[in-house]
Amino acid sequence: MTDVIAYVIIALLLFQAVWRVPAALRGQSRERSLWGAFAALAVAWLLRTGLGRAVIDRLGVVDLATLLKHVITIAGICVLLRYVTAVDGDVAASEGAVLRRVRITAAVHRIATRASIATMLVMAAVFFIVLDRTRTESPYFMARHAGEVGLALYMGLFYLYTAAAAAVCAYQWGSSARRAQRWTLRIGLTMMAFAMALAVLYAFLRTAYCAFITVHTVSMSFVDLQENVTDTVLYLVFLLWVLGAIAPATQSVIDRRRAKRTLTALYPLWRELALAVPSVVLRAPSNLLPGHRFAARLNRARDLMKLSPPPYLLLERYITEISDVQRTLSHYASPGLYTRAKALADGQGHTEDEARAVADAYWIKSALVAMASGAVAHSAPVDAPPADDDFDIQVERFVRAQAAYGRTDPETARDLLQTDVTV
What we know:
Blueprint: H1 2-19, H2 21-25, H3 29-46, H4 50-57, H5 64-95, H6 100-130, H7 141-144, H8 149-179, H9 183-215, H10 220-276, H11 295-304, H12 311-329, H13 337-347, H14 352-372, H15 391-405, H16 410-416
Helix pairs in contact: 1-3, 1-10, 3-5, 5-6, 5-8, 6-8, 8-9, 9-10, 10-12, 10-15, 13-14, 14-15, 14-16
């Protein structure tokens, strides 16, 4: 039964690792660290199973699977701390201040990185030199070495390292959960924080048990009870942590799909503006099979279905480039163009956001007509739509403008360029 639970945890860890392969391959340090943590801990859990131990036992070194399990766990924890530090660093950058918890996490990561190598070397030395590995009467590693001072040193180092790392993670994720805006993220971070709190409890229970059996002889029934209790706690730790990590990933999928839908809606406007003013565009729109009836769909698919950059970054680029094109067009617009476009929208019966979208669309169309007709660019912007500082508001505004843009009349747009026109 214990192996079955272990395999479930391994499957969940591997799922998380595979899920994050694209981000790891793109070279994003934060995601690569999290991928490494999931992969390392999956291997460590595999070494807890009968199959994993059997494979390592063929090498002929008694308890080598246990040593490898502990070493790989430390490596996975070290990489996980790097991820936590990277996340906190991003928070500090966005908030413009170095928070106390950010300083704590960064300091612990610096110490843990150096301490991990020393810890693994000392544990390996104790394992090969101090521990008596000829005793095989118990199926449990700690029970086989009960009464040995080397066991207290070996396990003490391991649990001290894991408890300190778990405490930092619990503190960081708990703080993040309190600030989380979305319920999926809040639930996931709370589960992860609670899992790390249980990990600290697990390390404390195992350390106390290790110290106790070093100085006292215990019955086999006590050993079995302790192993069952602490194993249950460990199962809860990883199940809560892995399932909690799925919640933010689920939110990431939702955000990714939302960004893709927005990109699809925004693409026609971006493409037309990018082709009109290519100098402000990072990467020109695709132009495969010009004149072919499938060209539009092919070029749209090629521009929108690229693996890199991810959708939310591509959306940011599109919004930035549309704004940059608007600034360029403002040098070609005639004085009062937006006021006339807004009056036209009001006269057509549009109100509020829809009126602004129609005004934006006609302003863009008119400015493009002016530029295409050979109008001389002014040295300074002449007229422009009202600016929005909030990114989400910009996205919504441009999406509405794109919907209205397809309904604009070229002749009306040309007429709006005349400063003496009354609408």
